[in-house]
Write a structure and sequence with these properties.
Structural class: mainly alpha
Largest sheet: 2 strands, antiparallel
Number of helices: 7
Oligomer: single chain
Distance between the termini: 43 Å
């Protein structure tokens, strides 16, 4: 099973909340309450997102966090990369040269193609898309080919 970490899940919920409240500054404690996590965990996530350039922080009594750019200009790939590192399903798909068997691997190129497709799919979904209610369902299963005009051999 492919699965992102809990901190990444928390990051997407925090970013979603900030996208739904554009231009507003929110304290770390408020964001922790929104997500239902400890303040310490929220600070860890917020620091990571800030370091990646997705959030900016303001100090002071009215300080807090806000998005660095409009939600439509932040992709899910940006958020996942900030939290998890390079996107890839295998070592060679995300970090070429990291696998000792890479030079003899017969499926390396195909795994790299799949990892690239996953990255491209995530890059097409903006934070604004995530914050808005879906307008239409997303289907991931390719439909069966239309066989009504296929030649039948006897």
């Amino acid at each position: 099973m492919l699965k992102m970490g809990k901190l990444t899940d928390y990051a997407t919920v925090i970013m979603n909340f900030l996208a739904q409240n554009p231009g507003e500054v929110h304290a770390a404690s408020e964001l922790a309450n929104v997500v239902g996590i400890s303040a310490q965990t929220a600070l860890k996530v917020l620091k990571t997102l800030s370091k990646a350039g997705l959030l900016q922080s303001q100090r002071g009594t009215k300080g807090g966090y806000q998005l660095t750019r409009p939600a439509q200009h932040i992709s899910m790939a940006d958020i996942l990369q900030a939290m998890e590192g390079p996107i890839g399903l295998t070592e060679c798909g995300s970090s070429p040269g990291a696998c000792v068997r890479e030079s003899q691997c017969s499926v390396k190129t195909n795994w790299q193609r799949i990892s690239q497709a996953v990255h491209e799919a995530l890059a097409k979904v903006s934070l604004a898309d995530m914050a808005a209610p879906p307008s239409q369902p997303i289907y991931f299963v390719k439909s069966a080919p239309d066989l009504t005009h296929a030649a039948v051999s006897a």
